[in-house]
Amino acid sequence: MPQQSSASTLHPHPQLDASAPYFEGRTTHGFRRLSDFAGHWLVFFAHPADFTPVCASELVTFSRNIADFTALDCRLLGLSLDSVYSHLAWCESIREHFGVAVEFPIMEDVSRDISRRYGMLHWRGGTESDVRALFIIDPRGTLRAMLYYPVTTGRSVAEVLRLLQALQTADRLHAVTPEGWKPGDAAVEPPPQTVAAAEARRSLTYGCVDWYYYTRPAVSS
Predict the structure, then answer these.
(1) What domain range is 33 assigned to?
(2) Is 55 a catalytic residue?
(3) pLDDT tens column, 39-82
(4) Are residues 132 and 44 both part of a single domain?
(5) How many domains does the chain have?
(6) Residue 106 domain-assigned?
(7) Which one of 35, 48, 132, 165 counts the least CB within 10 Å of its CB?
(8) Of 95, 93, 74, 60, which Cα lies nearest the Cα of 166?
(9) What digits encode the pLDDT tens for the residues 138-196?
C-alpha cells in the first residue's frame, strides 16, 4: 500500500557494528538514556504491548535469569509504546500472580520516537505497532546483534544469553563461534586472508579441518 511504502522510507534502520541509535525516556526505574549503560553490555528489547501473555512470559523469564546477565556485566532494558504507568501496573501484576519481581527498567515510548529509530515499528492489519525486537549493545555503544520475532512467538531467553556469551567470547579470543556454540566449546579462527597464511594453516596438527576451518580450544574467561 502506498501509505506503508512512504512510511517505511521515513524510518531509519539500525545497522550492525555501528553506533546504537540514541534513546532517552522515562522508565519504571526513573529517567534513562543510552549513555547510562556505557561501559556495560545491554540487552534492549521491545514487546508489542503490556498485559499480553507472550510478553508476560518473556518478562518473567528475563527476571528469573537476571543474575546470569549481571554476571556477564550485562544490563536489561525493556520498552513498549505503553506509558510508564501501564508498565508499573503490569510489573505489580506479574509480582502478584507470577511471584517474580521485575528488577530491570521498562521504558515508555508513547511518542514512538525510539521505536522508529530502532526500526521496531512494522505494519500489521493497516496499523503501525511495535514488533518483538531485541538488540544487544556492547560497552562501547556499538550495536552487535538484532533479533526480530513475530507477535505470536516468544523469544528464548536462553538463546539471548547464549548469543551474548558468544559475542563476548568472540571479542576475547578474536575468533568466531560456529553453529550451536555454547560456553566451553571450541571457537573457530577467522579464515586466512593470504595464500601464505592458508598454507601455514594446513601444517597445523590440531584442529585444522581445512585451510579455512581451524578450531581453537576453549579458553576460560
Answers:
(1) 2-155
(2) yes
(3) 999 999 999 899 999 999 999 999 999 999 999 999 999 999 99
(4) yes
(5) 2
(6) yes
(7) 35
(8) 74
(9) 999 999 999 999 888 999 999 999 999 999 999 999 999 999 999 999 999 888 888 88
* Cα–Cα nearest to 161, from 80, 21, 64: 64
Total-model pTM: 0.88
Q: Give dist(CA 61, CA 59) in Å, integer.
A: 5
In a domain, 37, yes or no: yes
Counting beta carbons within 10 angstroms of the beta carbon of residue 142, is it exposed (0 to 12), middle (13 to 18) or buried (19 or more)? middle
The one catalytic residue in 55, 74, 91, 208 is 55
Answer whether 23's CB lies under 8 Å from 34's CB.
yes
3-state secondary structure the chain: CHHHHHHHHHCCCCCCCCECCCCEEEEECEEEEHHHHCCCEEEEEECCCCCCHHHHHHHHHHHHCHHHHHHCCEEEEEEECCCHHHHHHHHHHHHHHHCCCCCCCEEECCCCHHHHHCCCEEEECCEEEECEEEEEECCCCEEEEEEEECCCCCCCHHHHHHHHHHHHHHHHHCCECCCCCCCCCCEECCCCCCHHHHHHHHCCCCCEEECCEEEECCCCC
Whether 160 is covered by a domain: the verdict is no
Q: Does residue 83 share a domain with residue 39?
A: yes
Residue bearing cell 511495535: 130
